[in-house]
Amino acid sequence: MDTREKSGLELLLCDAEARTPVLAGGMPESSLMGVPAPERGARGQDSMHLEALDRDPNDLPAQRWAVIVPEGEAGDAALAAIRALYEHRRDQQGAEPFVYRLPDGMDSAAAMRWKNEVLRDEDVPADERPRYLLILGDIDRVSLELQHVLANGSFVGRLHCPNIKGYRNYAEKVVARERATPAPRARALYYTVQDGSGAIGTGYRHLVEPSMRMTADLASRGKLGVDPPTEIPHSEWGPEELFAVAGVDTPSLLVSLSHGLGAPRRGWRSPDQQRALQGALSLGSEEPLSADMVRESPFLPGGIWMCIACYGAGTPPSSAFYPWLTQLAEHGATQEQAAAVLRALPRPGERPFVAALPQALLANPAGPLAVIGHMDLAWTFGFTDPDGKKSRASRMHAAQRALAGGSRAGVGLDALMHAYREINDELMARYQTQRDALARGQPDPVDPRLLGDAWMQRNDLRGYVLLGDPAARLPVAEQARARGTAEAAELQDRPRTPKAATISLRTDEASTEVVTRPAASESPVVAAVVVEPVPPLPAAPTPELLPPPIPVAPSLAEAPRPNPPPPAPIEVRMSTPPSPSGPPTPESFYPAPPTYAAGPPPQGAAPLGAVVRPRTLDNPEIGLRERAVLAMLRGDEAPRGIAMRFGLPLEEIFYWLDVYREAGRRALGG
To answer: What is residue 444's three-state secondary structure?
Structure first.
């Protein structure tokens, strides 16, 4: 076996100044002993709930499309700039898209609360709730945590451009591509920066080569309508070959493998330099592939880019790997390597941001329609099996197959997120096994190496996000004919949805949600949160000016509305234990049941920071939980099967199982 593979942990990160890999020799797999447990998230944040399960996920009239914008003038400006795309999607789905306005900086609990109470509002018919969600704005406005939460149950993409003109260029580009004559077939392009590092070698053997073989096999058997895959050669002299092949104006899927630029050893000179270069693609000894190189040059026109590199999509407010690397830097045998990686992580107080390279490409009229990239440190765990270093390229290729086959970009990302949800369930089950053994006074039966491997795979896969409209797709003739018939029939049978009224909503803990509904005797006006009827939109603004907020259409603004008294505010605050600083224990991952600052906990209260209203014993959710817990106690089914049968997240069932056992012990005097 190649000695480079024995290092175990390979990172796709490059020093921006030295232009050398940060972990040239990797790190030993033993570094994963005692990884800190992932923070307990909001209830259900990693579970999949696509409501129209019986419908084609690519069917826009069935799945619906909506926009999420930050509150304020910047959100208004971005929304006005994508007017062409908004109207195009409205015509495609036969209904006015909802526009949701959100406050800045939502954490996972607030994001889950918004998802459950607003996006899945029971007062809105299920077939009118949007599953395609386009976020406008940078990560410091509409949080990355919200994007992660919504990606499990919805098809989510984010569009952030350097200026208003970029938003307008992108919207017009997508519409023009979808209205143009589709190409006969798509191209599948593969590009690897062969710099001789262990991470690139592992990635090429276990991701790029298997992906090319699988694509060629599917194409040869007529199961994927693409040309034979093309491997773009890497040159030490510069990216001319990459630009020559990727610059051809035909629908293409590009899969690239490289190191992404991280902080130099001496740090970035300024925040502006960091935002301009972090996440740019290292091309070896030559200048990196940065935003300035693609701002006006044709690069993947009308295509989709799957970029495998550290920070390729952007830099988060904090890294999922920070607690583990901090432990290693303080106590591990790999202190020097861990410290080198820690220097490249975002520091407290730094503004998170979408990388400049995909920003420039999406704003470029001759650029791609969507980019899938990593929003953290990208390791090789997303496409390898750490136990024996076998390839797991099928995880990544599932997304490639969907995208090259003409599925929408959000569906392609979700094919990859399916692998994330599987490994997340596995990790939760291992932690529960530890807790069960502790409760029985038995030795820990979980191999810490397997636990560490699952932890790395989970966090590596979770970092991939979509930039661009999740409803964008490669314009290919074969897929266009197939979907045209289905969507035309869907629109013919679907009545046009009434226009929506505007309602203001905030989802922070200190505020109260107020949703106004029309009286039964009034004409139907759909109230959504926050929904703006876009027609008539103001003309798209110039880059120098921000327009006033989009006005409410007079016919809707003057419509009579009921004025019920606002509901009593619900303020439920939950104390959360601090993140563990040492090796994980079952107690650190499964904290004691949350305490409530305002009165006793409501009966049947939802755990994990997602409490939004008191639950009562007549709520059928309690009976559902009880039956799921009893099924776990009987032991006749696998935990994952029970979760699927009852439609509950696996981690939630484990939580209520602990609560059930603890209540029984107390009843017995324990």
So the answer is: coil
Task: Look up residue 407 and give its two tokens.
Answer: 């599925």
Give the integer Cα–Cα distance in Å for 254 and 653: 40
* Distance of alpha carbon 425 from alpha carbon 436, whole angstroms: 16
Assess if residue 283 is contained within a domain: yes
Place of tokens 């939460």: 149
- Select from 441, 465, 489 the last residue of a domain: 465
327 has a pLDDT exceeding 60: yes
Strand (E) or helix (H) holding 397: helix 393-404
Question: Do 497 and 551 belong to one domain?
Answer: yes
- Per-residue pLDDT of 18-60, as tens digits, reads 778 877 766 666 666 555 655 544 444 444 444 445 678 999 9
Within 10 angstroms of residue 266's Cβ, the number of other Cβ atoms is: 9
Q: For the segment 132-190, what is each residue's pLDDT rounded down to a tens digit?
A: 999 999 999 999 999 999 998 899 999 999 999 999 999 999 999 999 999 989 999 99
**Pair (286, 386) in one structural domain:** yes
DSSP character string of 354-372: E-HHHHHHHHSTTS-SEEE
Question: Same structural domain for residues 16 and 77?
Answer: no
Split into its structural domains, the chain has a count of 3
Domain extent for 134: 60-165+480-557
Q: 217: how many CB neighbours lie within 10 A of its CB?
A: 11
Residues 456 and 490 in one domain: no
What would the two tokens of residue 531 be?
């929904």
Quick one: CA dihedral 475, 476, 477, 480, positive or negative?
negative
Same domain? For 338 and 282 the reply is: yes
Cα–Cα separations (whole angstroms), residue 350 to 139, 265, 272, 431: 12, 18, 12, 33
DSSP character string of 19-71: -SBTTTT-B-GGGGTTPPPPPP-STTTTS---S-TTS-TT-HHHH-EEEEEES
As a three-state string, the secondary structure of 226-290 is: ECCCEEECCCCCCCHHHHHHHCCCCCEEEEEECCEEECCCCCCCCHHHHHHHCCCECCCCCCCEC
Which positions ≥6 away from 102 have C-beta within 8 Å? Answer: 68, 69, 70, 71, 114, 142, 146, 507
Residue 466's φ and ψ, nearest 5 degrees, are -110, 130
